[in-house]
Design a protein that fits this description.
The protein has 309 residues and is mainly alpha-helical. It has 11 helices and 3 strands; from the N terminus they run E-H-H-H-E-H-H-H-E-H-H-H-H-H. The protein has a 3-stranded mixed β-sheet.
């Protein structure tokens, strides 16, 4: 019988194969990571201190900003560390922690996008009932449910990983730990892991994408019924940014995770991973909030030296 032992650390392949590019990309990703932390933190503070922004939509944007910070922080600091090291390693415990935080963040964000699309649906299609359907108590329950489902999903998949044996090789062909790369290194059967992961991805990605599509179908139908062109433009402007980010985010997540392990493509997935772990969290504060006049007013309270153009 083969003696299966657990690896104490993994070696990461890294993001780039050319060492002379490491310093350049370290500076670039450090700037992007700083933008993620600063941008999303400013949005949270601005919404908290400015009463006109105490609405359901901005309550969920606050949660979204927090999720983006967690998602990026679970990957980028270790990536920056490895960019400046010749031997790129991560401990088994660090890999599991990264898996848990990243997976729970991604699941929570998918659910948040669905809840935000429902908020826009109620606001545009049932404006007279908006206060009742999106009361403070309901918003808190929705947010708590979103965080709970995202965390439980990640916890279950992590428990299934912990039951596996890893006896070598220990090379992770990525710049962070994710389920497809970890399962590929296991000496044990990963059939149950792949089934559970696929079911979770179908529910979180495809299920929520379907709900979001249904919400926006009703929104578009309602907008087309508006007689005034200004009314149509105003209604569409309240959800166009959200729809743009939903399309970008879902396309990257579905491409990465809704596929069998055998069809896993390293080079393509690295590029896509940069999008949903770094680029999208950088753009979210701008796309969702900074175009809003109320947010600009709130930003003046946070940053008194800013001026509105």
């Amino acid at each position: 019988m083969i003696n299966h032992t657990r690896e104490t650390e993994f070696i990461m392949q890294g993001l780039f194969d050319h060492p002379h590019h490491q310093g350049l990309f370290f500076g670039l990703f450090l700037c992007l990571y700083t933008a993620v932390i600063m941008g999303n933190s400013l949005i949270i503070v601005a919404i908290v201190i400015h009463p006109p922004l105490h609405t359901p939509m901005y309550f969920f944007i606050t949660n979204l900003a927090l999720v983006d910070i967690l998602c990026t922080s679970s990957v980028v600091p270790k990536m920056l560390e490895n960019l400046m090291q010749e031997k790129k390693t991560i401990s088994f415990g660090g890999c599991i922690t990264q898996l848990f935080v990243l997976t729970s963040s991604l699941g929570t964000e998918l659910l948040l996008l669905t809840v935000m699309s429902y908020d826009r649906y109620v606001a545009i299609c049932h404006p007279l009932h908006y206060v009742k359907l999106m009361s403070k108590e309901i918003c808190i329950c929705l947010a708590a449910g979103v965080w709970a489902v995202g965390t439980i999903n990640s916890f279950v998949n992590i428990l299934l990983v912990l039951r596996l044996d890893f006896c070598g090789p220990n090379l992770i062909q990525h710049f962070f730990c994710e389920f497809p790369t970890i399962l590929a290194l296991s000496c044990s059967s990963t059939y149950l892991n792949e089934i559970m992961m696929f079911m979770a991805d179908i529910f979180l990605a495809m299920g929520n994408f379907l709900l979001t599509t249904v919400s926006y179908s009703f929104i578009i139908i309602t907008i087309l019924k508006i007689q005034s062109s200004k009314g149509k433009q105003r209604a569409f402007s309240t959800c166009s940014s959200h729809l743009l980010v939903v399309t970008l985010y879902y396309s990257t997540i579905i491409y990465t995770y809704i596929q069998p392990t055998s069809s896993y493509s390293l080079d393509k997935n690295k590029k896509v991973a940069i999008m949903y772990t770094l680029v999208t969290p950088t753009l979210n504060p701008v796309i969702y909030s900074l175009r809003n006049k109320e947010v600009k007013v709130a930003m003046k309270k946070v940053l008194p030296f800013t001026t509105e153009k």
